[in-house]
């Protein structure tokens, strides 16, 4: 465990909380245990997180920021054409969703809690990337015109379903890349203008 230094307690606590989340789930996460894990007094985390919910919200917000950064990097590396961009985004999302399943679940459940306006705003960035990509596909004539949100929901449901199958040990993780490729190809064929 890296030593805590004055001024970096918040990121140290968030990193420890994310490790705990991966190992034990959100239910087991406590400020007192995190304080013990990083070697500070049990009251020290409250300077940054007044309660457990504030810690969970901070974790979820950081998760959305990381997902957004990973999706943006995948899109930037894929070039300008819609097909490769969609494949890259799907692969990046599925990698995140399967490597950080507990965090992803926390992210989506937390943003639907009343008063979670900061999380809704944080989620808007990665969701906006998918929306913009659907609009690009429609503008290029690859996808049929219509409500991009409806088309995006179908794509998101497909990706989320694949992630759930992998995370539930119903599909071997080594099959993920091939399944993602097939799913995106079928999505494009099924959404193509006639």
From TrEMBL:
Key word Metal-binding present: no
SUPFAM superfamilies for the chain: Homeodomain-like, Tetracyclin repressor-like, C-terminal domain
Keywords, alphabetical: DNA-binding, Transcription, Transcription regulation
DNA-binding region: 30-49
Keyword DNA-binding: yes
Domain HTH tetR-type: 7-67
Superkingdom, taxonomy of origin: Bacteria
InterPro entries (UniProt xref): Homeodomain-like_sf (IPR009057), HTH-type_TetR-like_transc_reg (IPR050109), HTH_TetR (IPR001647), MT1864/Rv1816-like_C (IPR025996), Tet_transcr_reg_TetR-rel_C_sf (IPR036271)
The name this protein goes by in its record: TetR/AcrR family transcriptional regulator
Organism expressing this protein natively: Micromonospora harpali
